[in-house]
């Protein structure tokens, strides 16, 4: 186990390196970089309108974006953003800084990338952890119940509800929640902005906890509605597959209770497929699903920060967020593999070669 764990941890380093290098090269080739953004602002075009290369087309200041500006000013702008160096030197500098865990400084936010990530991380962690926890607390018992009651009226109507939840996008459900519960057209029970209230610091400890959870109700519900459907169906199918196996028939023939058969024998084997989906579920909730939810509920998290950085070509923030997302994904995948041994001790990672 320790040898396998050591190999996997060591493999994270070249994997991170390859991902950072590939994305560095891709991003550098995209039009409308920070130099073009700065030039466009000087010329009065506005920085966020050039994502596709409208007024800012030519990298290096030789095209329309640099007309009418002093070449010395353009060179000063390039030097400010580090684009006066060749591509390979910029890549080497980036990798050297990352080896020291120095993610650099934001081009446009006037702060260190590490400080920005630390500042935005509580929002994304709050959304991701609560949404994942609630999703699993709902999906696994519901999937088991549906497997036990397969074909019953409960299975039919719950499947209908699951299909509706799966078909409705999270952002659309979020808008529906706002309309119904946040003062849109009906009741005004929940806030739709921020993670805490303006008077959070003046509240008691219990009041702070309640205020924090109160603000999370709608965004977490919007994230859960789409995620629990897939996991519920996966849990149900896993249980149905295991229930039909010979060892279950043998256990029942020995006189074991149905509860003992399900939770003493079937549960561990059925949960292997569910555990296999944990890494992708976590990554999807943390980084894919949270962007629109953060935007709709005006939550200043990593997803929203990464999107804004990509639009404004704030490369240090883009690469810093990418580095964090990749590292987190690799570690979650490793933890998911190790969880197999808790469910099935027969799995021997020491016999694996990678």
TrEMBL record:
One of its GO terms (biological process) is transmembrane transport. CDD domains: TM_PBP2 (cd06261). Signal peptide: none annotated. GO terms for cellular component: plasma membrane. It is a multi-pass membrane protein. Its main location: membrane. It is found in: Cell inner membrane; Cell membrane. Keywords: Cell inner membrane, Cell membrane, Membrane, Transmembrane, Transmembrane helix, Transport. Residues 121-336 form the ABC transmembrane type-1 domain. The chain crosses the membrane at residues 127-144, 156-182, 212-235, 270-297, 317-343. InterPro entries: MetI-like (IPR000515), MetI-like_sf (IPR035906). Belongs to the binding-protein-dependent transport system permease family. Probably part of a binding-protein-dependent transport system. Probably responsible for the translocation of the substrate across the membrane. This is Inner membrane ABC transporter permease protein YejB. The gene is yejB.
